[in-house]
Amino acid sequence: MTTATVSRWDRFRESFFWYSFKRDKVAVISFVVLMLMVLSAVFAPLLAPADPYDLAQIDILNSELPPVGLDGSDPAFPLGTDAQGRDLLSTILYGTRVSLMIGFGAVVLQAVLGILFGLLAGYLGGKIDAVLMRIADVQLSFSTLMVAIIVGAVFKASFGNLMFGEIAIYMLIFIIGVAEWPQIARTVRASVLAEKKKEYVDAAKVMGFGTPRIMFRHILPNTLSPIFVIATVQIANAIISEAALSFLGLGMPETQPSLGSLIKSGFDYIQSGSWWITLIPGLVLVVLVLVINLLGDWLRDVMNPRLYKG
């Protein structure tokens, strides 16, 4: 590493952020678990024993094999197989990748819409503020899942099951992203209302800077802390929303595994004794959402000195 890189790394290690992180064992463990899950999902094609998308590798005669250690198990399938004969470990790795893609993609869309509308409402005020916030209030009066179900049902009826299956990932990112943007918009608006009264904004106006530059170059960087906290929690919410929609048949199809579609595919086989098809992906989903929420809680406490007790 170069001298500059080493210097930046040393400053980071000495920073309050790094100090508080290494002292919080829950945050460290959550981060390690999350990184392991993310890396496993990213490198799923290299780590998975089989490709769940390759029909040539699927044998229906291997369907509903139990995990290793139970009677009738096969060492070639450590976590067993699902009703279609797919290796459950492979489908979980690929399914986690799909769920993470939808979670991160939806939050990026939420952030873009929320930051844009929040900046406009907070800085410009007046009728623009009234219209945007009333739209946000109306949307917040409905639950996120209800909005996602309505929009998802309309898209699925419009495109048909086959077409919807091909673009399901992009549709879910759009549906969940559009359903959740008011959370970020209201937070950004509140921060902007406080920031625009400060002297550096008045100085920027006196220097003749335009409105877009003042909003995006000067005010926005000072409102990022709460956005990071909300975005972390929203990733977990987006993953849960995807799982719920998939379970209801409005999300990922069973041929394109996500954690939600895997849980749904095995739900009908619980009473027949094939509990692992639903239980194991369900545990992975719980752990994934839990570690993200724990990191979000830690980030919230660190970025708010009034709450941090470390």
TrEMBL record:
It comes from the Bacteria. It is a multi-pass membrane protein. Pfam families: BPD_transp_1, OppC_N. Gene3D superfamilies: MetI-like (1.10.3720.10). Residues 96-296 form the ABC transmembrane type-1 domain. Belongs to the binding-protein-dependent transport system permease family. It is found in: Cell membrane. Keywords: Cell membrane, Membrane, Transmembrane, Transmembrane helix, Transport. The lineage of its organism: Bacteria, Pseudomonadati, Pseudomonadota, Gammaproteobacteria, Pseudomonadales. This is ABC transporter permease. GO terms for cellular component: plasma membrane. CDD domains: TM_PBP2 (cd06261). GO terms for biological process: transmembrane transport. The chain crosses the membrane at residues 26-48, 98-123, 135-155, 161-179, 227-253, 273-296.
